[in-house]
Specification:
alpha/beta; Rossmann fold; Helicase, Ruva Protein, domain 3; five-stranded parallel sheet; two-stranded antiparallel ribbon
Length: 354
């Protein structure tokens, strides 16, 4: 099931099949998606975790002339560099320990269709060179092989981080960035399209009633108000989770406020609300002073400065709480372990927090 749901019958606006939401921000996403779908241009989908980047990638593929071909999905943050290279390009027998036979990669599987590279920001600089070659030359070699193979696949990439900021921090190649960022599609966070929340809630209620054989068909006005007031750090995926939980736990046919988590209703403060390593006043002062000292294009990066500063402190805090166990910390943060490991390295947390 898509995390953005299904567009309800009778809705208005330039929506896409399989997606809920007619807020102005989403209508702009629909417009760009339809415009770019019929071309062969590379697409870079940007947005926070949980906003539905994969769904937009699927829409681009479905509306393109490649829709008869495969849509191959790869989560670049879920694998180490060596495993990801093999996953993308394939390998030959004997290329490494455990390579007992030749294996085709995802680019070969996507021939004639589309390959979706999620969490592209998690790739290493070494692998980015090889990705750039595929984008420019449409060719690659399997791991351990010398023969060159061709691929006719459209590349759609996605990132939950500001890639230009990654370029400035020398964690992402600028030439690859410009090759991927031919047409950017930025998906707004749920807190920026609160008018879409009632339709999303209705869809998720219907879906989880069906799969759980329940009949929760009403929602208490105060519960809906709490859902619309909440800031949704986990976006639509978080909303989906809470509605499923409420349907399962409900005694009657109404979703009431007591079925929602305390962080939504305001009775419980989020665990990550405080940052002991740097109090909010210090952080705000540093950000403001940094913002006053920059101008021109660098001013655009102020958001990236804030995000990086807060993310580093959050990761450090969670690592301490988890005793330095990265697997446990990754679970608590809602990201995979390889992504966390890369962030720990990028933020220089190896020596003290792990």
């Amino acid at each position: 099931m898509s995390i953005l749901g299904i567009q309800p019958p009778g809705s208005h606006g330039p929506s896409l099949p399989g997606i809920i939401g007619n807020s102005p921000a989403m209508q702009n996403v629909y417009r760009i998606t339809r415009r770019v779908a019929g071309t062969n241009a590379s697409v870079l989908i940007l947005g926070e975790t949980g906003v539905g980047k994969e769904l937009i990638a699927a829409a681009v593929h479905r509306l393109s002339h490649r829709s008869g071909g495969p849509l191959v999905r790869v989560n670049c943050g879920a694998l180490s560099e060596s495993l990801l290279e093999s996953e993308l390009f394939g390998h030959v027998r004997g290329a490494f320990t455990g390579a007992i036979s030749d294996r085709a990669g995802r680019f070969q599987a996507a021939n004639g269709g589309t390959i979706f590279l999620d969490e592209i920001n998690s790739t290493t600089l070494t692998l980015q060179v090889k990705l750039l070659r595929v984008l420019q030359e449409k060719e690659f070699e399997r791991v351990g092989d010398t023969s060159t193979r061709q691929t006719d696949s459209r590349v759609i990439a996605a990132s939950n981080r500001d890639l230009m900021n990654e370029v400035r921090e020398e964690r992402f190649r600028e030439d690859l960035y410009w090759r991927l960022n031919v047409v950017p599609i930025e998906i707004p966070p749920l807190r920026s399209r609160r008018d879409d929340i009632p339709a999303l809630v209705t869809f998720f209620l219907e879906h989880y009633n069906e799969v759980n054989d329940r009949y929760v068909v009403h929602i208490e006005p105060s519960a809906l108000q709490s859902l619309q007031d909440y800031h949704w750090p986990g976006n639509v995926r978080e909303l989906q989770n809470y509605i499923e939980r409420a349907v399962v736990m409900a005694d009657g046919d109404e979703l009431t406020t007591d079925l929602l988590p305390g962080v939504v209703t305001g009775s419980e403060r989020p665990e990550t609300a405080s940052l002991p390593a740097m109090d909010i006043d210090t952080l705000t002062h540093e950000v403001v002073m940094r913002g006053l000292s920059i101008a021109g294009d660098d001013a655009i990066n102020l958001h990236g400065i804030v995000v990086d500063k807060i993310e580093r402190e959050l990761i450090a805090q969670v690592l301490i709480k988890c005793g330095g166990v990265q697997t446990k910390a990754a679970t608590k943060l809602g990201i995979n372990r390889n992504t966390l490991h890369k962030k720990i390295k990028d933020y220089g947390l190896d020596s003290d927090e792990t």
